[in-house]
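Work package 3, deliverable 3.1, input record:
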Amino acid sequence: MIETRNLTKTFKHGNIETHVLKGIDFRAESGEFIAIMGRSGAGKSTFLYQMSLLDVPTSGEIVIDGEHTHAMNQAKRARFRLFRCGYVFQDYALLPELSAIENVALPLLMQNLNKTKAFSRAYEALEKVGLGHRLENIPSNLSGGEQQRVSVARAFAHRPKILFADEPTANLDNESSALVMNIFRELHREGQTIIMVTHEEQYARMAGKIAKIDDGRIISVTNNG
Amino acid sequence: MFPRFTLNLRIGFFLATRQIRRTSPWTTVLIISVMVLTFLNLVVVSGMLVGLVQGIGNATRKEYTSDIIISTLDNKKYIEESANITSLLGTIPEIDSLSRRYVEGAILEANYASRKENEKPNTANVQIFGIDPADEDAVTGLAAHIIDGSYLSSGDYDQIILGNHLLTQYILIEDPNLATLDNVGVGTKIRISVANTVREVTIKGIMESKVDLRSRNAFMIDTQFRNMIGRNDRNVDAIAVLLKKGADPVAVRDKLIRDGVTAFAKVQTYDDAQPKFVKDVVKTFNILGTVFGSIGIVVSSITIFIVIFINAITRRKFIGILKAIGIRGQAIEISYIFQSIFYAVIGSSLGLVLVYSSLVPFFLSHPIDFPFSDGILVAPPKETFIRMGLLVLSTVVAGFIPARMIVRKNTLNSILGRN
């Protein structure tokens, strides 16, 4: 369902070139929950950004649902992200002036759903993450764990093909981290494809597969029991 | 294409309303205050400049021409058939009152009794108006302009009212081209030479006028003055006509023209009779006002540009997030355009209310006392709305450019704060 072929990413700073991804071949099937692990600077987040079309690789191919994404222009990539991808960022990435329900409803409105339908779907998503009582709170009035749960609700409310999560528990305490990971597990059970970058072993074990990256290459892909 | 734009409009509006609603009230107040001041700068500066000149026109109308002025044809010495014209004027219901004026050039001489043989006579050229004091006061309110002594009454033979610019004591800066009378005041006897007649009269009052021309005129009662100039047929040189409140001077002028008055006299509204230089000055001040206004628009555009640019720069991460979750760049740009429109429209509307509910009425009742005019604030609604439209338009452009600059940046770099 998502496949990368010989994916590379090189950053240039003046004359200095840093090769962060050095030819990654990777495949995730529909409905899989894959954790990407690796030490700091291994290239795991960079890999996630390329796969999730937030960045453009230096070379190689990314095929999602049979579509070759390297041929897409910016507008098409944006449309692809809107309809097919969901994102959870390490620092929640909520819009500070929107309430919890507005944050979740925004991508749905952009999908041209009418306001009633968009807000009803946003409400369902927030109920699912246990925040049905915090709909009108703006992010600054929510705890870190609650903000991340809003972010997760925003990521799956529009029923994306793939949910990408970049270190979703890195800023959270144990209790909040467990809550977020339980939501991921629940979504996975319902058939949601999830690709998550983490450096926490205990949460990686909740995924079906663990892909380990080191020095810009995938060094192992293992199935969790 | 069109449904996509409509969707972007909808999302842009959604984002803009939330951002405005939840932005700091102080920021909102500050931006709106800048817009109000810019609007005032745009409307009031040019309005005061034009008002200054319009004040000259208003003063000329009030103190000299009145609503309609009927005057001697260029090739005639006086208005022929003055009596018939006066009768015709009496039949027009819109006319409130009129003042028939005999006008003749004269030389005033002072200090002749004490003048030594080798001394230059102290003279001044003047136009003397022979008037019915009550009629002239009804039309131009001349009595109220007396600053020393008293106004004429119908039996005041050998009495004269002088405009203050004929007297040296009232001239602040001496003009070698304008001769004035020295050491004269109320009660002083002066000599008049007019139409081969020399007569000694007493100064009964001194008048002051905002109309420079009027300040160098002199006034005597018509019954004596017409004898002095030999106008025994009672044909006058000018008739100033005051209309009833609400009457249209153009309509009355046109009626007089249709009735054939122009065969014997020039018929002009106060506007027609305005000297060309006043009209030129109005045009010039209008241009100056537009120039100042344009500078105001540029300043406001730069202000809004900076405000939106700082806003967009500090929100760069969130703009990146919006793009990451699939919100189109155009929708984000539109959200900034809506914010600019909001600030510009609210600021301009408050400015409009301030101009029409406070400033215009205030300056009408308390005009600025310039030596040559009562300065008022002129703000014709049509021009004001054009300026408001320009302000909104320039603000929209100034809001759009920085938003576009930030939106075009790489999505991931924006989210991660990389340059």
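The first helix of chain B runs from residue 2 to 22.
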